[in-house]
Amino acid sequence: MVQLITQGIKVSVETKFEGSIIKDQVVHYAFKYTVNIQNQSNDVVQLKSRFWKIKDSLNHDESVNGQGVIGKKPVLQPGESHMYSSGCLLQSPLGAMRGHYDMVNFTSSKKFRVYIPTFKLSAPFALN
Predict the structure, then answer these.
(1) Phi first, then psi: what are they for 39, rounded to 5°?
(2) Cβ(30)–Cβ(71) under 8 Å?
(3) pLDDT in tens, 57-112
(4) How far apart are CA 29 and CA 42, in angstroms?
(5) For residue 70, is it left (φ>0), alpha (ψ between -120 and 50) or beta?
(6) Which DSSP symbol is given to 48?
(7) Residues of the chain above pLDDT 90, percent
(8) 2-121 adopts what CATH topology?
(9) CA dist 126 to 23, 57, 122, Å?
(10) Are 45 and 103 in contact (CB under 8 A)?
(11) pLDDT confidence of residue 59
């Protein structure tokens, strides 16, 4: 698990290799990631949008922008957490993801950015 705290918001990520599939006649490697966002600040905050940078060992890069996470824009009271799982497909068995969440602080009405630590995606067979 990797973790990072930005302005009182702790982001923790765990990953799991799910297997391989053939898509468009190319082998792809499926990974699941579970993110826990914990509000360790004294303010109420809301996650508004996300940005991901996905890279595999064949130097394929992909950027993903979107509103919320899995269709939600969670509001977190102090001490609350929001956990969700998602996934990605890579064309190689090794890769990494990183990114950020754009959030708003309800106390100050200010927007701020929370960074998602870089986490590795690796199929167990690729590490031997």
Answers:
(1) -85, 100
(2) no
(3) 998 899 999 999 999 999 999 999 999 999 999 999 999 999 999 999 999 999 99
(4) 40
(5) left
(6) E
(7) 91
(8) Immunoglobulin-like (2.60.40)
(9) 20, 11, 7
(10) yes
(11) 87
